[in-house]
Amino acid sequence: MRAGMYEQDQPDDGLFVSDFVTVRSIFVRGRNCLLLQADFAPLFVGYYLHLMQHAIHPDRDKADAFKQLLAFFTLFLVSRPWNEQHAWTINVKLPENTNYFVAGSSFSHDVVGRIFTKDVRQNDITLLYAQNICRGRDTHTSVVPLKGSSPREWAEEFFRISEQRQARAFVGQGDFFYLVTAEPDSDFDWLNELTAEQVAHLETTEETKLLETRNFTFHCGCNAQLIIPVVRAMQKDFADILSEQGQLDVSCPRCGVNYTITREMMRGHDTSPDAC
Question: pTM, whole model, 2 decimals?
Answer without folding.
Answer: 0.86
